[in-house]
Amino acid sequence: WTVNLAWVVIVLVVLYGALRRERTMRAWALLSGYLGVLCALVVVARVAPFGAAIGREYRYLTDVACVLALCVGLAFLDLPGAEGSSTPRRRSRLDLVVPGPAVAVVTAVVAISGVASSLTYVGWWNDQDGGRTFLANLRDDVAETGTVAVADRTLPEDVVSGLLAPDNRLASFAPLVTDNLRFPTWSEDLSVVTDEGRLQEAWIEPSVTSRTGPDPGCGWLVRSPGRSVPLRSTAFEWSWWIRIGYLASEDSTMTISAGRSTEEVQVERGVHSLYAQVEGRFGTVRLSGLDQGAAVCVDSIEVGQPSTEEESRGDG
After folding, report:
1. Taking CA 81 as the corner, what is the angle to CA 78 and CA 84, rounded to the nearest 5 degrees?
2. How are beta strands 148-149 and 181-182 bridged, if at all?
3. Which of 25, 215, 258, 261 has the most neighbouring CB atoms within 10 Å?
């Protein structure tokens, strides 16, 4: 607001001088020309090594204060013996723009009500700005974690309005904030961004789960020829995330097929979870493409949407 106020004062001073005196614009032209040349010199000499930071180095422009004092004097004082000096107007044009009492009162009422309305409107955005909190939290968490794989989501209404869909998705918004968020179609370490902008480990809130496997202690045993794991019901046409809990005998590639999606993933030896995004309607999940000799025990497959642990448990 101080910058805006300074511009208002500058405009009012220039207008006041132009209404009361003749030939005042010559002084302001002199000041503008000097300031323009000075800025050009600073840009040429400093922008390469220091970049945009030179705009905050006021010491490069301090000598403008001397020229400003000179130009204000030339605009508002007579310069004896100078033919181009500013002089008082025979009839001040200020009288032509100063309103009568009634107009002044109405103008003041409109101006004050407009300022009050604007402050109320801006105050709501400042006080109820969920987007500011969201951004601050997201920046802080990403700074701590570094590059992280996250599931895309629709942003809260107070961050980006749903009227801007599909640009109200996190994947569209994130590049404006950070380059450290990845949006993979599969991952072993998947995170979600909460409504408050916090990064948390992803949990799948299951809408459909796999049937209990026939192999005791293993569930569904998958070898290189592949195996289809049936679900308890059919997942309807939608964009889903699935979590596969597995135990692998060795590192291997594996292909996941569900609905219209086929994804080649990497499984690691030991007990892990694997997250994959699939599209379409499906009642089974096909697992295939394991290396020869590799075996994977699939304990469970959950089909749903990523959420936080608390939301998945129903506590959120």
Report:
1. 65
2. parallel
3. 258
At residue 66, the pLDDT reads 94
- For residues 17 and 77, what is the distance between their CA atoms, to the nearest angstrom? 10
Q: At what angle do helices 2-20 and 64-76 cross, to 10 degrees?
A: 30
Model pLDDT for residues 46-91, shown as the tens digit of each residue: 887 777 778 777 788 889 999 999 999 999 999 888 888 888 888 7
Nearest to 148 by CA among 203, 188, 191, 186: 191
**Which pLDDT score, from 0 to 100, does residue 49 have?**
76
| Distance from C-alpha of 168 to C-alpha of 156, rounded to nearest angstrom | 8
Tokens of 33: 């020309």
**Helix or strand holding residue 228 (H, E):** strand 227-248
Joined tokens for residue 30: 């002199």
- Name the pLDDT band for 233 (thresholds 50, 70, 90): very high
3-class state of residue 114 by DSSP: helix
Listed in sequence order, the residues at least 6 apart from 298 whose beta carbon sits closer than 8 Å to its beta carbon are 210, 213, 219, 220, 221, 222, 229, 244, 245, 246, 287
**How do strand 296-307 and strand 252-258 relate by DSSP bridges?**
unpaired
- Collect contacts of 104-111 with beta carbons under 8 A, ≥24 apart: none
Structure tokens at 63: 């000598």
**Are the C-beta atoms of residues 209 and 301 closer than 8 Å to each other?**
yes
For residue 280, the cross-strand partners are 238
The answer to whether the predicted template modeling score (pTM) of the entire model surpasses 0.85 is: no
Adjacent-strand bridge partners of 288: 255
Q: Is the pLDDT of residue 119 over 90?
A: no
Where do the H-state alpha helices sit in the chain? Answer: 2-20, 25-50, 64-76, 94-97, 101-127, 130-145, 170-173, 309-312
